[in-house]
Amino acid sequence: MPQTEATVPGTKNAPKLRAEHLGVVYDRDGESLPVLEDINLDVDDGEFVCLVGPSGCGKSTLLNAMAGFLSPTSGSVSIDGEMVTGPDPRRILVFQERGVFPWLTVEGNIGFGLSNLSRAERTPRIAHYVKTVRLEGFENSYPSDLSGGMKQRLQVARALAVNPDILFLDEPFGALDSITRVIMRGELLRIWQTERRTILFVTHDIDEAVQLADRVVVLSSRPAQIKDVLTIDMAHPRNISSSHYLELRDELLKQIGLAYEI
Amino acid sequence: MNSLAQPRAWERFFWPVVAAALLLAFWHYSVVWTATKVFPSPLSVEKGIAELAAKHVLWADIGDSLRRVAIGFGLAVVIGIPLGLWFGWNPGANQTVNPVIQLLRPISPIAWIPVAIIFFGVGDHAAIFLIFLGSLFPILVACVSGVSSVPPIFRDAGRNFGLSTPQLLARVVFPAALPQILIGARIALGIAWLVVVAAEMIAVDSGLGYLVIDSRNSGKRYDLVVAAMLIIGIIGLVLDLGFRRLERVKSVRWGFRNAS
Amino acid sequence: MKLFERLRPVLLVATLLAIWEVAIDLHPGIILPGPIAVAGGILDLLRHGLLLKYVVASLFRVTWGFALAALLAIPLGLALGWYRRGEMAFNPLVQIFRPISPLAWIPISILWFGVGDLAAIFLIFVGCFFPLLLTAMNAVHNIPAVYINAGRNFGLSPSAFVRRILYPAVIPQLLVGLRVTLGVAWLVVVAAEMISVNSGLGFLIVDARNAGNRYDLVVAGMVIIGFIGLLLDLGMRSLEQIKSFRWINSEG
Asked: Which is nearest to A73 in space by CA: A33, A108, A119?
């Protein structure tokens, strides 16, 4: 597999996030299992990048390494020029499901990372993000009263409340039904367009990637390397019936190695 | 979940009453038919309860038993939960200390009585020590188990938000483990109630346990013996139910599967 | 690293024993024995053949009391768990009897059985019956509805249903309950022997103290009690590990 430098030349000076020769090898009972191999990726500030690849290829591992939950076996990740050595509130990871704290209300969850603020600063902040993710009326509800989609929205609100530079999302809509998924994609884009952050989004859903991302990074199967990077040069809102969309989608399918006739 | 039709609401009161009535009838007639001179009939037990209540000794005894349980159980909670959380968080510490715990746990608190008497003499403090011992182990076990079953996702999220380890333990691990800790505490309270009665039968001279043994020893008052036993059962049940109330508090209910 | 990990608990125990011994040696008049005296006590018991005799006596009572309780409580509990009305009827009664310490039954047990083996077995029976009853009832409640429905869907006869769905489904929980209750039985037998019989490990403890303040034997008895209780627990745990019983750990 040819290695691709995933830089978009000439846009910004320094990338927000840079992964250089990133490699992760797991040690399972004495046997070494390479999961990621020589990943090189630059992500610019405010970009929406999707990582796609076959199941089990290591997308989540890559995300965890970039967010600082995993130490890479080789190579490094730096954000704003600073090496990533651990998790940090400046880069929040949104999990696939069950990430919200069930013992806290909606307000409690959103305010979780805000404990160093005074009550006067915290309350309007929480209210703002309740509104942003459209959970008004549920401020004092517990997660057990919320649907799956609402819980994911809550997680996003909790992440946004601490004003991170980067949002990592690990298949956040994977556990939701397909109708809710479409709605949530719209929500995420809406939020992203108002509160511009850098987003790295892992998904196995090809349509999702083409609908959301500025760029789609295609990973090979394990040990994962970057197979290709596809630029989605469509403005939002994207017409998902347009021929350009379908072209990009087909291109992506081809990159992953799937036929488009079943 | 059964092969018969859904029971109606009134049946929740009907059937227990029927069962209790049957039991009382069986009891009454056994006493009558065997013409026993000693074993009390339900009526004499009822009179016995009234007698105890009137004599005012009953309330003092109940108070003594409850007080000992409160102190012993309270100590076990205050010491056991932080210790248990630490053991659960530090698999190394747990692995080191666990064998000692597993060796001490099967020793009935009652077997500790001679040793307890050496240290505390006969009386309240010895009883409280025994209650503490009996309550400590279930709490420790529940804490360790609760901590280790906190999903890693919560720990990761906590670290992601920049929490230090003590903050993580207090704001994420402890609330996440709380449902299991509460179950362990409820079991420990039940054990505490068993131990206090047993301890009072042997090592102190007040309390409900002492009432049981004393009623027999000084005058073979089996009506009072059974009366005391019933009171012990009822208070133990009340303690258990009260504790279960705690498990319904909203910020903990999520951890209990059957909570609607 | 692994070797050190294995040794750590041993080191802890050794350190505690050392502290204990030193503390005793520093207080010459003290009645509490040090670990060396306790070890001597254990050897003493072995030499006089008392150790084996007492252990067997205690185990004998536990076995009978526990087995009787299990044989009665488990089928009854399964039936009550299944028939909602039966449970409604008896649950309040069980809830009142359960918190009554088995030892509180001593006057009644002496009345009915006198002083001796039977009384002790009765106490153990009482101490095990109610917890096992509740365990069996709960085990039935926790059978996932999907299994029940599948059984019905495939048209199983009642006896086949019990054999092929009910029994496998409740076994893991029953085993855990049996293990815990066996621990309770072991606690009760010791306590019961301290009060109402004249053999067994519990009796050893009171007798050693009453007949001559032999605290080395008292603590020796405690150590043996702890040790055997641990063995019983480990034995039951190995039952839980048998593959066909382990399904509950592999389900979601």
From this structure: A33
Q: Which helix (H) or strand (E) holds C24?
A: helix C2-26
Element (DSSP H or E) covering residue C150: helix C145-153
Strands A166-170 and A198-203 turn out to be parallel
Q: Which pTM was predicted?
A: 0.82
Size of interface A-B (CB pairs under 8 A): 54
Task: Return d(Cα B12, Cα C88) in angstroms, integer.
Answer: 6
Give the ipTM. Answer: 0.82
Who's near A257: CB < 8 A, 6+ residues apart? none
Measured in whole angstroms, the distance separating CA B57 from the mean position of its chain's CA atoms is: 23
**C204 burial class (0-12, 13-18, 19+ CB within 10 angstroms)?**
buried
Q: Give the tens place of pLDDT for each residue, A115-159.
A: 888 889 999 999 999 998 999 999 999 998 999 899 999 999 999
B9 interfaces chain C, CB cutoff of 8 Å: no
Residue type, B252: V
Q: Which chains touch B (3 or more CB pairs under 8 A)?
A: A, C
Query: Phi and psi dihedrals of A79, rounded to 5?
Result: -125, 125
Q: How many CA atoms lie within 13 Å of B229's alpha carbon, on the beta-carbon side?
A: 24
Query: Token pair 């597999």 is at which residue?
Result: A1
Burial class (CB in 10 A: 0-12, 13-18, 19+), C212: exposed
Q: Please report, for residues A218, B20, B43, the alpha-carbon distance to residue B27 in angstroms, rounded to integers and kept in the order given.
A: 79, 10, 10
Query: Angle at Cα B18 formed by Cα B12 and Cα B21, nearest 5°?
Result: 135
